[in-house]
Amino acid sequence: MAGLAESGSDPDVDLLYDINGLAKDAPHWFDRVVAFVGEYGLLLAMVLLVMWCWWSVRRRGGEDAASSVAALVWAPLAAALAVLVNVPIRGFVERPRPFRTHEGLDVLVSGKTDYSFVSDHATITMAMAVGLFVANRKFGVVGIGLALLEGFCRVYMGVHYPTDVVGGFALGTAVALLLSPVAMLLLTPVVKAVERSVWGGWVVRGPAGRAAVGQDALIPGAQAGAEERDLAA
How far apart are the first and last CA of the chain? Predict the structure, then answer.
């Protein structure tokens, strides 16, 4: 991988220069904004998007609230797991950062001394976006858009090759999607137990949802009476 990066005829390097070259022509203030957004802003935006989706699910309630919240819990867990998987990948590939191998790049952030493949930022944002998509497609599509923007920013900033970003997208998607059935199988019962608890029910449902779920339980014999009416019918 590192050998390919040193080749001037490599399309990966050509695309790196094309995208990073936009930073040379942009105003300095715009580059500073992109650097902040690419380093911190989009990660924060992804967290806020997950929180917004959780608030929407909690307020709406419904029978699938527990499974949706379980999927939202899986989103950050998938991102963390994907980053852990990336640790041995980076150590195996040992691809230097592009600015260490190629001259003339406009590097917008400093202090990047670790290996380049794959991008942690791309991995985290895409894993969270796919996990979010499992919980809610509309929010998930927005999350995927943010992840794609994150990938563009990393190349624009001169700290990653395009293939670093693509590899991060693939890794984040694989971890979040392939392990989702197992994660949901383990997390959904836990979330349902929290939903039934007195101290944690608000995490899954808002006041209206909890009132609807607990209405029969608040009326002694309501459920038994309903079953008797069904048998009589």
Answer: 72
Q: Please report how many Cα atoms fall inside a 13 Å half-sphere around the Cα of residue 18, on the Cβ side.
A: 9
pLDDT single digits (tens) 188-220: 898 888 888 777 777 777 665 555 444 434 444
Q: Give the tens place of pLDDT for each residue, 41-68.
A: 999 999 999 999 988 888 876 677 888 8
DSSP 159-221: SS-HHHHHHHHHHHHHHHHHTHHHHHHHHHHHHHHHHHSTTTHHHH--HHHHHHHHHHHHSTT
Cα–Cα dist 71/18, whole Å: 38
List C-alpha distances in Å: 51 to 36, 44, 132, 149. 21, 11, 10, 20
Give CA separation, 135 vs 67, 97, 148, 191, in Å: 8, 35, 19, 14
User: Tokens 């911190």 correspond to what residue?
Assistant: 40
Q: Supply φ then ψ for residue 8, to 5 degrees.
A: -70, -20
Rg (CA), the chain: 23
Residue keyed to tokens 């909890």: 210
